[in-house]
Amino acid sequence: MTDQDTHATAPSELPDLWASIDDLWSWLDANRPQGGQEGMLLRMLKLSEEVGEVAEAVIGATGQNPRKGITHTWEDVQGELCDVVITALVALRTLTPDTSEVFHRHLTRVTERSLGPAARTSAARPPAS
To answer: What residues does each domain of the chain span?
Structure first.
């Protein structure tokens, strides 16, 4: 058993992804300093900031900046990648309330394009209602 296995969370204990995205979107929408199209565009730009933080963490984890040395861990990189995913899903929710359906439809297209129609997995199918 790996260290990761001992820290795994049972599926019943995991938060619902789409409900969490809706909750985060609602919280951000209620507390946004800018509204309208400008607010929407700023939410999209937040992705660039988060991707930059992934780059910073990778550089820090590999010690690529000799002046700073190793400043991050690969766990930091994992966290930053999760922040990118969350930010992207909240941005998608900003564009459509059908976030889950839009995402699953696109994931199915990408999976089939990359792996072929027979490769459609349960992960690419929308959850049963």
So the answer is: 36-117
State the pLDDT at residue 1: 46
pTM, to two decimals? 0.80
Instruction: Using alpha carbons, list the distances in angstroms from residue 61 to 4, 12, 24, 54, 121.
Output: 19, 33, 29, 10, 33
Could you count the other beta carbons within 10 Å of the beta carbon of residue 80?
Answer: 19
∠ at Cα 50 (45, 53), nearest 5°? 135
Evaluate if residue 28 carries a pLDDT over 90.
yes
